[in-house]
Amino acid sequence: MTRNPFRYFGAALAATTVLVVGSGVAMAEEAVPFDTQVRFIFNTLNFLLMGFLVMWMAAGFAMLEAGLVRSKNVSMQLTKNVALYSIAGIMFWLIGYNLMYTGVGDGYFGTPMPVSIPDPAAEAKGLSAEGATMYAAASDWFFQMVFCATTASIVSGTLAERIKLWPFLLFTVVLTGVIYPIVGSWEWGGGWLDKEYGFSDFAGSTLVHSTGGWAALAGALVLGPRLGKYGKDGSVHPIPGSNMALATLGTFILWLGWFGFNGGSQLAMDSAENVSAIARIFVNTNAAAAAGAVTALILTQLVYRKVDITMVLNGALAGLVSITAEPLAPSLPWAVFVGAIGGVIVMVVVPLLDKLKIDDVVGAIPVHLIAGIWGTMIVPASNSGASFLGQFVGVVAVGVFVFTVSLVIWFILKATIGIRVSEEEEIMGLDAAEIGVEAYPEFGKGSQAI
Amino acid sequence: MTRNPFRYFGAALAATTVLVVGSGVAMAEEAVPFDTQVRFIFNTLNFLLMGFLVMWMAAGFAMLEAGLVRSKNVSMQLTKNVALYSIAGIMFWLIGYNLMYTGVGDGYFGTPMPVSIPDPAAEAKGLSAEGATMYAAASDWFFQMVFCATTASIVSGTLAERIKLWPFLLFTVVLTGVIYPIVGSWEWGGGWLDKEYGFSDFAGSTLVHSTGGWAALAGALVLGPRLGKYGKDGSVHPIPGSNMALATLGTFILWLGWFGFNGGSQLAMDSAENVSAIARIFVNTNAAAAAGAVTALILTQLVYRKVDITMVLNGALAGLVSITAEPLAPSLPWAVFVGAIGGVIVMVVVPLLDKLKIDDVVGAIPVHLIAGIWGTMIVPASNSGASFLGQFVGVVAVGVFVFTVSLVIWFILKATIGIRVSEEEEIMGLDAAEIGVEAYPEFGKGSQAI
Amino acid sequence: MTRNPFRYFGAALAATTVLVVGSGVAMAEEAVPFDTQVRFIFNTLNFLLMGFLVMWMAAGFAMLEAGLVRSKNVSMQLTKNVALYSIAGIMFWLIGYNLMYTGVGDGYFGTPMPVSIPDPAAEAKGLSAEGATMYAAASDWFFQMVFCATTASIVSGTLAERIKLWPFLLFTVVLTGVIYPIVGSWEWGGGWLDKEYGFSDFAGSTLVHSTGGWAALAGALVLGPRLGKYGKDGSVHPIPGSNMALATLGTFILWLGWFGFNGGSQLAMDSAENVSAIARIFVNTNAAAAAGAVTALILTQLVYRKVDITMVLNGALAGLVSITAEPLAPSLPWAVFVGAIGGVIVMVVVPLLDKLKIDDVVGAIPVHLIAGIWGTMIVPASNSGASFLGQFVGVVAVGVFVFTVSLVIWFILKATIGIRVSEEEEIMGLDAAEIGVEAYPEFGKGSQAI
Amino acid sequence: MKYIIAIIKPHRLEHVREALAAIGIEGMTVSEVKGHGRQKGHTEVYRGAEYVVNFLPKVKIEVATTEDMLDKALDAIREAAQTGQIGDGKIFVLPIEKTIRVRTGETDHDAL
Amino acid sequence: MKYIIAIIKPHRLEHVREALAAIGIEGMTVSEVKGHGRQKGHTEVYRGAEYVVNFLPKVKIEVATTEDMLDKALDAIREAAQTGQIGDGKIFVLPIEKTIRVRTGETDHDAL
Amino acid sequence: MKYIIAIIKPHRLEHVREALAAIGIEGMTVSEVKGHGRQKGHTEVYRGAEYVVNFLPKVKIEVATTEDMLDKALDAIREAAQTGQIGDGKIFVLPIEKTIRVRTGETDHDAL
Ligand SMILES: Nc1ncnc2c1ncn2[C@@H]1O[C@H](COP(=O)(O)OP(=O)(O)O)[C@@H](O)[C@H]1O
Ligand SMILES: Nc1ncnc2c1ncn2[C@@H]1O[C@H](COP(=O)(O)OP(=O)(O)O)[C@@H](O)[C@H]1O
Ligand SMILES: Nc1ncnc2c1ncn2[C@@H]1O[C@H](COP(=O)(O)OP(=O)(O)O)[C@@H](O)[C@H]1O
After folding, report:
1. In chain E, which residue ranges form alpha helices assigned H by DSSP?
2. Domain with B385 in it: what CATH number?
3. Minimal Cα–Cα distance from E16 to chain D, Å?
4. Read out DSSP for F44-79?
5. Pick from A237, A240, A354: which is nearest to E48 by CB?
6. pTM
7. Closest Cα of chain D to E41: distance in Å?
8. Of all residues in chain D, what percent are helix, strand and coil, respectively (each to 5)?
9. Which of A59, A389, B140, C63 has the maximal Cβ count within 10 Å?
10. Is residue B314 included in any domain, yes or no?
């Protein structure tokens, strides 16, 4: 296959001919009008472009979490993140996508079966048919899949530094193949929550972030805190993360990816209105993140007399999660407000969880679960199409379902193969125990450091 | 809100109908021709796409700077970078954008007032009006905002390892809300420099990079060098950066982001000529960076007998800054030449600053200020629309204004809340002093390293 | 030059006018129909967008390799990666591109001469001419150049920790300026392999990855293994990489970039069919990577009782290389299969090379060379346009040519300036020996660590 | 005066510090070391090849103390560091001839 | 022969090295250690919870020296390391029974 | 009992460990240190300015041993660590007054 500057020339000519001729006589029935194709291209491009930004968030979670665990558990955390993204990709193909989107009706789930990607020529030809979807099916699948992967990423951070690899991955299989798709089907799949309650969750504050957060919370309760995190006297012993540069890098990656997460959720880019909406979403998304970060910056300074960078990073992310349920309707100042409350949530919930002895290593519960609830509940304030009741029903329904099912699965895993490493292994570090490859062998206690 | 493959189908159909009908009878006056919409989409997409690449440069600066400071100051450097990007986002909304672009006339500044983002439906509808802008206002704001943030990023590197957090952030507020917008209004806002002198600065060698550089220089002078950097005998004591992998990552991020920085500054992508121009800009931008890196590579080998990676990274960046004033007009060999001189500048100016006892931790002054001046002054050589005089006036005007105003602000901050940490805090490291979270607690002198 | 919201307004109007008028009477001969321009824009955008993703892979290789070498050689590895990307950019301009694409006929190479980038206005105008290429020449060059750079990146990992900087860079000059372009001309340049054998290599499993792999293998043989890697008794002494977080980050970057690598190789995005093909490529590419990672995950657990993260990362990359020869034709399950075998290859070939005492520091030979061969040979199974014989001829021809020429060049370099550092320098580390800047001076054995 | 050098398991450091504090000993210097002894290193696999990690992370505690406190100190360390598992470490006592406090120049007993 | 072990503040190392060089002592071995003593650790807040950093970074200098140089060496170290602030550190002198230079096998006085 | 402190070049550690194992000595504690001595540091250039690296990476080995094994141990270390190049390091022998095994409380000879 040639690829030189002249290769395409032929193809282009040919295509032009088809189109020109197509608007002529003989082939008229087959040809898809160029304008229709342009719309198809824009919408597909939207999914691909925004999709790769969301895919990139997988790296963001990996870096954030690798930076917030101790060095003896870094390889494990990285392995989990590579693995969960891979598993999401496979499960969402095998059953997830169709469980979420096919045959949901106004019901509770669709049909679990593998996705098959249409042939491009056939798909393009089919565009002239009435009712044709105006984007490539593959691009839609890709965009939806990276959302599924995000949900799984959220869980991995909370449970870090003590969970065994394989039970975590098994849970990921269920989460990405079953739990997330079912919840998604209720709303994005057009199921009961959408039809009966007009629940509104633009890009997934609840469907993605709270889902991940509830699953993480259930896991944290079943798993228990890390050794030494809480004293018998109720004291809290912080366990500093090993690498703030990675944590910050991860946060910037997530921030960048979030433009795709929220912007792409407009689902179309084929009209001036749609692309204008995407632009507005970019601005609001950025504003909420900035407000979350600045709020945490100021509050940590006021409350603790020093600025805690991990809280600032959490603040930015909580701002992002908060705006995710409705990044389009708010005015810019309202987006700032919504994001700023995200920053407040982090300040309040992080110590609160410690009081409850719920050990959330990276702050995923405040950031994804609580800010996700906040973002969802505040939607009606800017979007008159949403109702307080509908939002409430959605938040509760998702919470009850995900939390309960997750709890059951975690218990089953605990009772069967066990979910927690031994005390000795936890002290030694999961990298030595399960991965066998140290993250930083030449530094600190590393085996090559002599 | 449904998101399943069929959701969009309805919308698409509906839209098609509108358009089809729109070109019919009844709704004729309302409908925006699809071609107009396509142009609007392309231009908006240009701003969003190139804008997110420039946003990503914030991470690049963070990593570069985190890699070039000592480990005891890494959390501080990261915090400053997250904070300044957030502050830029807020200030450029509150007053910056309109100060730069609204009501400048051919004058010296615009009207400082908050930006408001139009409703997408209204904006799209307005496209049929005469004189409608052919891109989403939100996308333009986003693209302009990330440039503003870049300016602030430049300052943070020079002043690292000794400046207090809050005075730096206060300066950032003024820089992003006032100084940069005013300078920008002179040229990009259509003010006096544009109208009277035909100053030409395509993507901001002067407006962004020199502005950042002058502010940094003023700060470095007021702040003084780091403890131990210069001996009383005039000797220079290098203070090696803590992490070359991060510094290199940061440089690659900046290199990538620069395609957006320069390419997006074409400001439109709605014609073959525009997109061809963007492509040419990509090529020239890459060529200048490559030439800067290779020049520094060869020169450090020849002069110092070893290749200094930090100089190679600075060389690539200086190449990028050099081509930024005019990335479109040059032929490829000319772009190589312009970038290569950027590499030479780094080789000459880095030791020169040390002779002057100006302590620029990351080399921002040679890279952004001096290479920015070089790039601006050489524009007339490839772009006949620019004049040597006009360029000179622009460079000097921006220099005098930014340097003077910055100096005054730094002095005020010094005289009031103080800008420098105590000697003891500087020795201990800013992370312990002001952030309270170490970047690498388990390595080196970290508190968890036992 | 103004850049305010109203600047573009004028231009837009003007352009609109031209187009409207252009479809009128007087200017009819000059005006390029808007639809043609749209096609030109989409295709150019494809090259730029996918091209910057592939450019980003340079950072991926840098991080992956920096993570898999010992800390005393990290600055060297980073320097090589920045330098090789820069050199590729210059050599592919000076001679590479035209050697690969201009005047190849059905022969063995083209005309080595510098590329020149057309003037955007002229290029846009030329679109109305018959036979005009439907994308910006600059965007094509950019896209092709980043492929060339990728080839060079592959070599640098294998030869790490013992090769001298300058001989490596000289080899890179020849590889990017001559070897890769010649091989590329056979197929993508429309030369004999394409014309006579119908060889099929969609995005370069052979042309890019195996080419890099063969060059690396030749280098590894001439250079010999690192000191202490193999005992006299045939024992293998692993030398753990210094930073798994960087290695994982690098892998995620490569994974992301690969969407551009494979997707962009569709070479056009100007029709529904093309963009649908790109979407399908995204999905298959992701599936193969996921399958490669999961396969290595499971196999390392089964075989070694622990999950080796470096093998999982290699598995993902081998999956990516495997699908690169044909990412479009396969169904999703077939892509999973092709990628999974990539994972198996890593499991088998990594220890095999050690048995042969071929020291491949990062696993580039299994990942790029062997998986590249696998991916190329399996093309006919999904693409009926390819033949087993044609693929075989291509694989062998490229192998024989690249391996032989590389071997000769490595020998010449060895005999003249020498390619390997002294034993003492190897023990001390290449950073101290040739770069003079330590990667992590404050950690481990770093000079600032006291 | 005596110089106590104790090699212990890293996660027992906090216990030892507390045990010493309990008997009034605050001053000590600790460092990361690697130990080799009866406790065998483990075999790891990296990229398909096995290797033995011979040296295990330990913490070294150095405490200068007066003769009269010596036995109490040794007991405190031993009890706090003990897990009963192989590899718990060793305590060595060396003689000190002179002790100086840098800040004041005080010597011996007063220097602690 | 005597073995001097000095625990000092990290940023004084360069002064001490120079002070020792000034009296003709070049040979020394240094390492990163953590110290605990009168100088109290500080309380930090991480993610809303307080914790105490008990051990502060110090540098340990080890110098083997002959009896006749001992006092000069101790004075040099003490003066160069002193800041007058709490936490300046300690110097311990231990007896050495034998010294060997690895390269030549020379012993004792000749080995330095 | 004697306390051997050997400062050696890092890449000789494995040889020394093997040499000691060959004469039946398994127990030892090692750490990363920096050395200064006859072997001169090197001058580096960073961003156009020169600086001297005064301290070179060394490894410190600490072995407590009985009197009867001492000479064998010293010979083993010296031979294994020797490269003949400047900077090979030193071995110091210090007296030990007491040795305790943390796990069992055994002392002196039995504690090794
Ligand atoms: N002879 C020795 N000299 C110095 N350190 C020793 C000696 N023997 C043991 N150690 C240190 O004590 C640690 C524990 O010793 P080991 O023999 O493994 O177990 P145990 O303390 O239970 O006897 C070793 O890892 C090493 O650091
Ligand atoms: N008894 C001791 N044994 C060993 N090291 C000690 C002892 N006391 C103090 N040190 C070391 O000396 C350092 C300084 O001691 P400290 O009591 O804080 O202040 P000062 O030296 O001013 O008395 C400690 O951090 C510790 O490293
Ligand atoms: N007087 C000393 N006290 C403590 N350590 C010393 C002394 N002299 C040398 N050393 C250590 O021994 C190492 C080697 O010594 P050096 O004089 O460089 O070479 P050589 O061992 O060949 O005489 C030094 O780097 C230092 O760590």
Report:
1. 13-22, 67-81
2. 1.10.3430.10
3. 12
4. EEETTEEEEE--EEEEEEEEEE-HHHHHHHHHHHHH
5. A354
6. 0.96
7. 12
8. 30, 40, 30
9. C63
10. yes
